[in-house]
Amino acid sequence: MVRRVARPMLAAMFVVGGLDQLKHPGAKAKAARPVLDQAAKVGLPDDPELLVRANGVAMVGGGALLATGRVPRIASTVLAGALVPTTLAAHPFWNESDPQVRAQQKVQFLKNLGLLGGLLLAAVDTDGKPSLAYRARLAGESAQRTARTTRREAKHAAKAARREARLKAAQAQNALT
Questions:
Q1: What InterPro entries is this protein classified in (predicted)?
Q2: What is the pLDDT of residues 65-117, one digit of tens each?
Q3: Of the candidates 84, 105, 124, which is a domain's last residue?
Q4: Which of 12, 25, 105, 108 lies 20 to 30 Å (CA to CA) from residue 115?
Q5: CA dihedral 102, 120, 44, 93 (to 10 degrees)
């Protein structure tokens, strides 16, 4: 029940923020320029508005998926990836000289850091079900147990067959004498 309530609450900020990035990319592109200059070094396009809109799409899509409980782990990971550049671009409190603006930016930065923590928790939440890695390990162990059991039973069957063959041979020998 908690997941059903908490996921939409966590996702709401991303859906609203992503829609804003889609509708008004200009102002955000200007603020994001220093971060986008770094992104250009890794081969991303040099179109700030396009990148802001792409980030907005990731936020709206990931937020909608998280809110509805569809692939919440993937959605949380996508949102975490979208939140990092948004936070660095929108709230660089370390660059502010005005103490009041610096304090406001720091609060917003820490708010986003808290959201990132929530997303990381959602990304590793298996919803009460064992993780894929655990299930794979369990299947591997089960296959190993099955192989050991099969080998042991084959050994017992071979031993019983040899015993039966000796018994039949002895019976045939006794019938001849």
A1: DoxX (IPR032808), DoxX-like_oxidoreductase (IPR051907)
A2: 999 999 999 999 999 999 998 898 889 899 999 999 999 999 999 999 999 99
A3: 124
A4: 25
A5: 0
Indicate whether 31 and 78 sit together in one domain: yes
The CA distances from residue 150 to 113, 118, 136, 161, in Å, are 53, 47, 21, 16
| One domain, residues 46 and 117 | yes
Query: Residues 119, 7: contact at Cβ < 8 Å?
Result: no
> CA 159 to CA 172: how far, in whole Å?
20
**Residue 127: what are its φ and ψ, rounded to 5°?**
60, 35
**80 and 157 part of one domain:** no
Q: Which candidate, 143, 15, 166, 154, places its Cα nearest to that of 78?
A: 15
Predicted confidence (pLDDT) per residue in 113-158, tens digit: 999 999 999 999 887 777 778 888 888 889 999 999 999 999 999 9
Note down the domain range covering 65.
2-124
